[in-house]
Amino acid sequence: MAQKQIMVLTGAGIxxxxxxxxxxxxxxxxxxxxxxxxxxxxxxxxxxxxxxxYSWRWQKESPVWNAQPGAAHYALxxxxxxxxxxxxxxxxxxxxxxxxxxxxxxxxxLHGTIGTSHxxxxxxxxxxxxxxxxxxxxxxxxxxxxxxxxxNMPCNGxxxxxxxxxxxxxxxxxxxxxxxxAQHADEMWVIGSTLEVFPAASxxxxxxxxxxxxxxxxxxxxxxxxxxxxxIHDDIALALPELVEQTIAQE
Length: 251
Description:
The protein is an alpha/beta fold. It has helices at about 10-15, 30, 40-45, 50-60, 65, 70-80, 95-100, 130-135, 175-185, 205-210, 235-250, and strands at about 5-10, 85-90, 105-110, 110-120, 125, 145, 155, 160-165, 185-190, 215, 230. This is protein acetyllysine N-acetyltransferase.
């Protein structure tokens, strides 16, 4: 018999359980400091050198960049090792699922990721850690890739993390792949998402319409609680490892 396949949608709650402050909650970074939303504003980033330097510096010093995965992240690695994880679609851009050890091909970063960066001109890919390491020497990072068709001159395009900024589109195909996985899973789990941010939240009704049983694990209520077959309002750092353990044991 084939193993049960579980599609997981994660939100800020899985990372607050690992010590990252959320952005939109009552004590969220953006709730308390609305000016900080400017850090992720694409127009400011493209047009204002000072805004770019501030964005890079803020991201390097923020808990998002320095965070380490928590027990809940490692539980999803156990779920994958058991062969029961079809996909993690995450609204977080902290790259903690990758850091914990989930396979990159099992992760869809709906709002991008801080783990990688790119040149906005030639689309060269960069590891963000390398850029952060040189930020003191180069506070407004530009692309150093040499272009053979331009006499080996450096490209010099702007570098930007792969986080989706306000005013940018979600990564191509991310929603389609997530919805498809949710509709074809044996179960869908929502972990630590308030389900207020669209289009990510629309994955839940898509799964419900396909008849997929839904578990919502979140400290507060969500607008889609009525679609859930199971609601868990416990501490995610304890409740998710427990749920994973039970699920693997039942197979």
